[in-house]
Amino acid sequence: MPARILVVEDDPDQRNDLAAVVASFGYQVTTARDGREALTALAGLPASAILTDLVMPRMDGIALLKELAARGDRTPTIVLTGFGSIDQAISVVHDLKAFWFLEKPLQPGVVRTLLERAIQQNRLVKETERLHSQLSYHGVLGDLVADSACMKEVFSLIRQVAPTTASVLISGESGTGKELVARAIHALSARSAGPFVPVNCAALPESLMESELFGHEKGAFTGAVERRAGCFEQAQNGTLLLDEIGDMPIGTQAKLLRVIEESKVRRLGGTADIPIAVRVLAATNRSPEQAVQSKLLREDLYYRLNVFHISLPPLRDRKQDIPSIAAALLRDLNRKHGCRVTHLSPEVVDWFAHRSWPGNVRELRNQVERAVIMAAEGEIQLQHIPGAMRAPAPPPTVDPPERDGMLQVAVGARLAEVERAFIRLTLKHTNNNKTRAAELLGLCLRTLHNKLRAYESVKVRSAGASQNGFD
């Protein structure tokens, strides 16, 4: 099917002539008289590329590009400019991320070449989006890795909100990966080519907070020996992450709210407002509602930031993700330390599964990194994990009874026992078809195999303990 090109031009003769030239290249052509008609046309049927004049009534080319960016529409746009407006066209290409510009009168050969390149870029963007979506369904999104249903729901929320301009509040315990979520949102947004600036509000002294956020002029306070741009200016046309927003002083929160609502920032000691185009994400390890009730977070700022909320579960509630996370960590840590570690032993996987992980993924990374250094190559064993050899083996477990395809679970049964019994019952239901069982359980096949190996290792250790008189 031929690519579809949208031609936006207010002059009817030039619009018809340009449409005829584009159609002669074998493309489908849709025309619009101005930016508003162009947006209506795009809502009905997306285009592979856009050719738009700059100067038009109602909505001109610049306003059209700004609206496309606000909607997260990455359709490559070629700007048409008349004599004397080359500087403006170059500025539009640079500031508004237009694909390129063409000076009137147009040369058909140049138009054709630019359209071919624009269409190719559009295909690459679409393919990248498709691969991101496909990977997320298989448990990978940016630097995030997971197999659990709760994290796949988080991936879905990220895919939904990333293309928009909405503020996002990310909550979760320390170490759950809030900054990784923020980076994934930035990477999947229309601002991905711009900077990503994270600011840890808890790590900044109160006396430097406003200077760090808003910047300062020379001489604004003692020690301000030169002008300095704040984080909002550094994040221009990109994304700013305000981590641990609940630790920001209340007075600074009021100024922050004004900056977000007015899209303008004034440096300390300055007299002029500086326009900003920044998407603001915020993160907290506290319950946002409790932070508001405790007067640690302004209620009006909370509602301004909480346009879209993503809550991250702790690692103890998604232990089925540990093998996948560990495998991803191994690849990263092998490169970092020049090691050749291949995998975790089943005993290590089982030991990890019985920990509560108060430090979440950050604690897991710490454990795996030390083990990688200790092992250097091959398999990571219990001897490479600090404290694992001294820890007593998990007590023998008895699976809950099953009857008529159902489990009977008594109050007080360990979650690991219930999970193991449920997996075995599902395998029995599928006649040991592991692929089908993984689908029913909502697990990837690799995770199911890891769990089964861990169960066998527990059985072997329990049998060994019995033979040696420890039962």
Word description of this protein:
The chain is α/β, with parallel strands linked by helices. The protein has four domains: 4-131, 3-Layer(aba) Sandwich (Rossmann fold); 145-313, Rossmann fold (3-Layer(aba) Sandwich), CATH 3.40.50; 316-384, Orthogonal Bundle (Helicase, Ruva Protein, domain 3), CATH 1.10.8.60; 402-467, Homeodomain-like (Arc Repressor Mutant, subunit A, Orthogonal Bundle). It contains 18 helices and 20 strands. The strands form seven sheets. A five-stranded parallel β-sheet has the order 2-1-3-4-5, with helices on both faces. The protein has a five-stranded parallel β-sheet with strand order 9-12-15-8-16. Helix 2 (35-44) packs parallel to helix 3 and helix 17 (434-441) crosses helix 18. The longest helix is centred in the N-terminal third of the chain and has 30 residues, at 108-137. The radius of gyration is 28 Å and the shape is globular. Residues 134-140, 391-398 and 464-471 have low confidence and may be disordered.
Topology:
Layout: E1 4-8, H1 12-24, E2 28-32, H2 35-44, E3 49-53, H3 61-70, E4 77-81, H4 86-95, E5 100-103, H5 108-137, E6 140-141, E7 144-145, H6 149-161, E8 168-171, H7 178-187, E9 196-200, H8 206-214, E10 215-216, E11 228-229, H9 231-234, E12 239-243, H10 250-262, E13 264-265, E14 274-275, E15 279-284, H11 288-293, H12 299-305, E16 308-311, H13 322-337, E17 340-344, H14 346-353, H15 360-375, E18 377-380, E19 402-403, E20 406-407, H16 415-429, H17 434-441, H18 445-467
Parallel strand pairs: 1-2, 1-3, 3-4, 4-5, 8-15, 8-16, 9-12, 12-15, 17-18
Antiparallel strand pairs: 6-7, 10-11, 13-14, 19-20
Helix pairs in contact: 2-3, 13-15, 14-18, 16-17, 17-18
